[in-house]
């Protein structure tokens, strides 16, 4: 097993990519702390892991709130004795409108969760990772963090911020044996794209806009996250790994 004796936190672990990664980490032997703002989904992931002979707890967490992230790290280390993997994954889409029509409140909501949430995850996880002798941080960016798209300015900016914040943390904490990488998923079949699916005109185009001509599954993204979390990626840090079926170059 690739993650035995490791403890991992997965934010946004109640659904989609986070849920798939939490299950994959557990299958590889990790103790998994599921953090999500949604208690029903988050508890369900942790229960599922326990029912399949894994070790998991759920901690209700809003990633945009420093006090709640602090408490998440404290609960993790007091329950499992350390922290080795931090998957800063929770995120939200933005209301799709032109920048001039985007409210400042909506901008703040999206940037607070998608970018400040990753900053807080790094800020409070690093001391715990250092105490454990090092570890791996994986941050969820997006294909839309690597290129602009109309009507998603807050999402674009927040996810682009994650790419460089990842490099910043990789440079600051490499000497403590902490690797920091990002993933940039393309269109993946989770709740976050429900509104795109309902657009009968655009969905046939969006759903095939990559070299493989299909959308991805959360499990395919979880495989990439597992790789970055594991020792198999021992010389990889500061990287952003596209998991997009070739969507960036399409
Ligand atoms: N699905 C895609 O096509 C796609 C593409 C690129 C990037 N992403 C990114 O992947 C990540 C996971 O999204 P997903 O696709 O699995 O969608 P999802 O909606 O299935 O999962 C997101 C999870 O984050 C949780 N969450 C939202 N706000 C939170 C907060 N403030 N604090 C804690 N948890 C919160 C939600 O409750 C949910 O469980 C996000 O960062 C998203 O931006 C998704």
Structure, explained:
This protein is an alpha/beta fold. It has one domain: Rossmann fold. It has eight helices and seven strands, in the order βαβαβαβαβαβαααβ. The protein has helices at 16-27, 39-51, 66-80, 104-131, 153-173, 194-197, 203-206, 218-229, and strands at residues 7-11, 31-36, 55-60, 85-88, 135-140, 178-185, 240-243. A seven-stranded parallel β-sheet has the order 3-2-1-4-5-6-7, sandwiched between helices. Helix 1 (16-27) runs parallel beside helix 2. The structure holds nicotinamide-adenine-dinucleotide (NAD). Residues 11-12, 14-18, 36-38, 41, 61-64, 89-92, 113, 140, 142, 185, 187-188, 190-193 line the site of nicotinamide-adenine-dinucleotide (NAD). Nicotinamide-adenine-dinucleotide (NAD) binds at residues 11-12, 14-18, 36-38, 41, 61-64, 89-92, 113, 140, 142, 185, 187-188, 190-193.
């Amino acid at each position: 097993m690739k993650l035995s004796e490791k403890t991992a936190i997965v934010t946004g672990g109640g659904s989609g990519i986070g849920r798939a990664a939490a299950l994959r980490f557990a299958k590889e032997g990790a103790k998994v702390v599921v953090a999500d703002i949604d208690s029903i989904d988050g508890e369900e992931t942790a229960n599922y892991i326990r029912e399949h002979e894994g070790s998991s707890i759920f901690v209700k967490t809003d990633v945009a709130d420093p006090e709640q992230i602090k408490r998440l790290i404290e609960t993790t280390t007091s329950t499992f004795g350390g922290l080795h993997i931090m998957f800063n994954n929770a995120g939200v889409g933005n209301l799709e409108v032109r920048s001039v029509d985007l409210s400042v409140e909506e901008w703040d909501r999206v940037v607070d969760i998608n970018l400040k949430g990753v900053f807080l995850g790094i800020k409070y996880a690093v001391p715990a990772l250092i105490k454990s002798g090092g570890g791996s941080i994986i941050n969820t960016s997006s294909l839309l963090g690597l290129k602009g798209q109309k009507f998603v300015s807050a999402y674009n900016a927040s996810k682009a911020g994650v790419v460089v914040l990842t490099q910043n943390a990789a440079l600051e904490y490499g000497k403590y044996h902490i690797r920091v990488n990002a993933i940039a998923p393309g269109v993946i079949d989770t709740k976050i794209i429900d509104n795109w699916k309902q657009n009968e005109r655009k969905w046939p185009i969006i759903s095939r806009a990559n070299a493989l001509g299909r959308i991805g599954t959360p499990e395919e993204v979880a495989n990439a996250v597992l790789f970055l979390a594991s020792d198999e990626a021992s010389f990889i840090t500061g990287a952003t790994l596209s998991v997009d079926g070739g969507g960036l170059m399409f």
